[in-house]
Amino acid sequence: MGIISTIFGAFSTVMSIVVWILTAICWYKVFEKANVKGWKAFIPFYEDYITYKLAGQSKWFTVSIIAWIAAQGLSLIGGFAVMGELMMALSNGSQMGQNGFLVFGTSFILSFIVFAINIYVSVKLVQRFGKSKGFGIGLVVLPIVFVPILAFGKAQYSDKEWI
Q1: What helix, strand, coil percent values describe the chain, rounded to 5?
Q2: Pick from 29, 22, 21: which is nearest to 156 by CA?
Q3: Among 19, 43, 97, 134, which lies 20 to 30 A Cα-Cα from 2?
């Protein structure tokens, strides 16, 4: 069983890297369409900032990053809290507390806020390329499909928001 897990883990890692590279290449083309240097697509977080800026929504970048960092931190803390409560409950036969689950719930809410901001910004971005709101949602939900369409399609960037 161990060798299968190792092979699957290695395959998943390689595929994740390949998908990231392909997506970054597509963002390179999107940035060039918007007269932004394409190399900026290969720098994590900076690529996100440029995307928010192209959408005319750079103010949401800070909110999104802070909420994302808080969600990740709370998720980690919540995991430790749940494990600690479980260990205590198993060792002395008491019931588990609710602290870990409360932290996980807060993390989930923050993650949902980040997701909602990403949809909003993606809709604003694709509208500047003359695309629909549905295309913007697709950009968040299925980026491996919609980013190449935006990159290699006929859409042209405009500073003005298209309706």
Answers
A1: 80, 0, 20
A2: 29
A3: 19
